[in-house]
Design brief:
By secondary structure, the protein is an alpha/beta fold. It contains 9 helices and 14 strands. Pathway: Bacterial outer membrane biogenesis; LPS O-antigen biosynthesis.
Length: 310
C-alpha cells in the first residue's frame, strides 16, 4: 500500500502513519503544522514528510504524481480559531474538493475522510445513529460537513468516519491534554457537565485497518466506544490516573453556546459491517495517555471551543 495522509503530522495522521509504516506501507505525510509539531514522526526509510497546504493545487498535484498513492486518508482540517470562518471553509470544504480531484485523476483505490461527530449538532436522540439529521452549529463542523457531502460527487471509492473523541500519542486537542497540562502546572481547571464518548487510538487503528480494505464497505460510519462520560467525571478520572490529590473538587460549568450538552455515537452499524468493537476502557486508556504525556510532555493544546480557552 502507498498511503498519502493529509494532516499527517497531527494526532490522528501521525499515529496512522506510524501504524502503516510498521505494516510495510510507503507513507507520504502532508501537513502545514498549524495544529501539529515538526519532528513528531521518527525518521523511516518508507516515510516522506512534506510541509504544505492542501489548498496549494500545484503542490498537491506534484505530490500525487510523484508518490502515486493507492490509498488516501484525509485528516487535514482547520479548527484552531472558531472565528476564522473563511479559513475553515477553504481548508475543510475547498481543500477536500482538491484532494478528491487528485484522487479521481490518479485512480486512487480508497479515500478515507475523517469527519467530526459535531456534524450532528444538538442530538434529537442518543446514541446517535448515522441516519440522524445533520445540524452542525460551529464553523468547524459546518465546513467539515460540507466537505463530507462532497464525497459522493467523486469517482473514488470512499468511507467517511464520524469520530468520537480519539486520544492517544501526540493528542494535544480536547479536554484530556488540557487537563493534564494544567494539573501538572498546578493551575486551576474547570469542567463542564457535557457528556462525550472517548475512544483509544489503538481501537481506532484496528478499525482503520479494516476500513482501508479495498473490498470493504463504503459510505458513512460512526466510530465510537459506545459509552459516554461527563467532562467533569473525565477530569476526576484524569486526577486518579495522574496520581494526584486536589484540595477541592473541580468547578463544573454548563456547556457554552458553541458546545453540545451530549454527544454519544451509535457504533452498531460499524461493528456489524467491519466486525470491530472497542476493547480499551477509559481507565486503562487514560493510564496509557498519562504515561505518554509524562514521557513526552505537552507543549501546547488546541480546541475548537471558545470557552475552553479561558
Amino acid at each position: 500500500m502507498r498511503l498519502l495522509i493529509t494532516g499527517g503530522a497531527g494526532c490522528l495522521g501521525s499515529n496512522i502513519a506510524e501504524h502503516a509504516l510498521a505494516q510495510g506501507a510507503a507513507v507520504l505525510v502532508l501537513d502545514n503544522y498549524a495544529t501539529s509539531f515538526r519532528g513528531g514522526l521518527p525518521p523511516h526509510p518508507n516515510l516522506r514528510e512534506v510541509e504544505g497546504s492542501i489548498l496549494d493545487g500545484c503542490l498537491l498535484a506534484r505530490l500525487f504524481d510523484e508518490f502515486a498513492p493507492t490509498h488516501v486518508v484525509h485528516a487535514a482540517a482547520s479548527y484552531q480559531d472558531p472565528n476564522d470562518w473563511v479559513g475553515d471553509l477553504r481548508t475543510n470544504a475547498e481543500g477536500t474538493a482538491r484532494v478528491m480531484a487528485e484522487c479521481d485523476r490518479l485512480g486512487v483505490r480508497r479515500l478515507i475522510y475523517l469527519q467530526t461527530a459535531l456534524c450532528y449538532g444538538q442530538p434529537l436522540r442518543t446514541p446517535i445513529p448515522v441516519d440522524h439529521p445533520l445540524a452542525p452549529i460551529t464553523s468547524y463542523s459546518i465546513s467539515k460537513t460540507a466537505g463530507e457531502q462532497m464525497l459522493p460527487l467523486g469517482r473514488t471509492p470512499w468511507v467517511s468516519l464520524r469520530l468520537a473523541n480519539i486520544y492517544g500519542p501526540r493528542n494535544y486537542t480536547g479536554p484530556i491534554p488540557i487537563f493534564f497540562k494544567r494539573l501538572r502546572e498546578g493551575k486551576r481547571c474547570f469542567a463542564t457537565d457535557a457528556r462525550r464518548d472517548f475512544l483509544h487510538m489503538d481501537d481506532f487503528l484496528d478499525l482503520l485497518d479494516r476500513v482501508l480494505d479495498e473490498g470493504g464497505a463504503q459510505g458513512v460510519f460512526n466510530v465510537s466506544s459506545g459509552a459516554d462520560v461527563s467532562i467533569a467525571d473525565l477530569f476526576d478520572a484524569m486526577v486518579v490516573a495522574m496520581g494526584i490529590t486536589l484540595d477541592e473538587p473541580v468547578e463544573v460549568r454548563p456547556p457554552a453556546a458553541d458546545d453540545l450538552a451530549t454527544l454519544l455515537l451509535d457504533p452498531s452499524l460499524t461493528e456489524r459491517t467491519f466486525g470491530w468493537r472497542a476493547r480499551i476502557g477509559l481507565k486503562e486508556g487514560l493510564r496509557r495517555q498519562v504515561a505518554w504525556f509524562d514521557r513526552h510532555g505537552v507543549e501546547a493544546t488546541f480546541t475548537h471551543l471558545t470557552a475552553a480557552r479561558g
